[in-house]
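so i finally got all the pieces together for this one. its two components total, 499 residues if u count the protein bits. some of the lines might not be protein, just check the labels. i wanna see the whole assembly predicted at once instead of chain by chain like last time, that was a mess tbh
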Amino acid sequence: MDNRRFYYLAEGECEEKLLKALKVRPALIHPGKVESFNVIQRTLKPNKLMGFQPGSSVVLVFDTDKEETAILKKNVELLKSLSFRVEVITIAQVLNFEDEIEYCTDVGKAQEFTRSENVSEFKSAVNRMRKWSSGWR
Amino acid sequence: MIIMDVNLNNVYSFDDFRINLTYPRKLSVSLLGSEALEGRERFRYKKAVILMGANAAGKTSLGKALLKIFSSIRESNEAILRDLNSEDRPAEFRVDFVNEGYVLHRFCGVVDGENVSIRYLSAEIGEMDSYEMAVEKLQDRTEEIAGSFKALRKAVGQMEFRFAYPEIETSLRLADIKEAALLKTLRAVIGTLDPSLTDVSVARDLKDSFVIRRRGKEIIIQEGKLLNRELLSSGTAEGIDVAVFLASMLSGRNSFYYCDEHFSYIQSDIEKRIFGLMAERLGKNEQLIFTTHNTDMLNLNLPKHAFAFLKKEIQGGEYKVSATFASDVLKRHTDSVKCAMENDMFGSLPDDSLLDDLEVDE
């Protein structure tokens, strides 16, 4: 087992649930603590950073369609300044979440995935899902 | 208030004991921010200290000794010191601290039964002074105070501190805590410990009272006393004490905090996060000593001088307690404090050999 610690900071609840599923099945990402934290809009504070073990990897998950990146840059610089073994890896999402579902499954529209009326209901349904892995059969 | 150095002799379990809360070199990066007296950049002090040690090593006793010493000044009451000694010989203490302004105070005392004799020294802290340089300048002002605790209190100034121990908090001290801050903190801490407890509100009919509701049941914190404690899990009940302590830091009325083992029933990650919130709330010229048994706290991203270990060992036929900081032993930035503790580099691991007698014979 790789004993490195990983922390995933996802932009929103949907991304958080997806990451939590991906680390379990189909185990595409390294296991780690996942939480919802918008690194584009919020600055990482000391009380949270104290809990990041030196030598850990911090993975920032956010959409690339963001124009304001000043806070993101500040967060990246702060993480890099704390411990020379902290790695910051940004995973840029090209499509929005609904487009990603349509791309990687056989549904025509994302809301078909959850039998929702529209995109808004689809997002609510995803957030209500207790066991995301049941959708990966 | 900032404590710089403590010496205790025959005080509770402490004999020939010293703990120093200064550090020599400025750090380039620290999540604790500035650890120096504001306006005196070379007068460095350990802002937040995580204090660990085996059972009965003295973590609680140290706090109790400090509480009595500082309370005797704040209350102008020498009687508070009268039970400090543990045997039939005098107790002696010496504490260096900074309170208001740029003055280093040294308060020394000898307690022999009913007799308490004190000495008081002070020094102005110059702009380029370190703690050691200020100590060199200490001047004896014992004659000025003439043994009077009232005069001592006047010389030292208004003292603000908060000590919290699990076994003492039979009632919660809500005085001087802003109601809005406490309500916000209660909601966040209790909601984290028990997500089913989302309804926390002020009790309108009672003074200093709060109501926590869950599925038709009410848990009441009335005038500082927690009622219906049996309705809460141990961790959540403990969480209320923690919330009160954290809210008191938000209120900014105290500047020295001693939080003694308030997280025995609380999950490790939550303890680490709440410690982080406490440390973040420390303002200028404030200090926190936080005792715990949770070794996960040693993984926190903090300077090495923030971790202290008490060990109790036999010296000359008697048990003596000593303090070691991780920075005294570990010199490289990459050294793991937790790994060093587990390898007993600080000598703080307990001796469990007596438990060998309980092994099942084959």
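The interface with chain A takes residues 29, 31-33, 269, 272-273, 275-277, 279-280, 299-302, 333-334 of chain B (CB under 8 Å).
DSSP finds nine helices and 18 strands in chain B.
anyway lmk what u think
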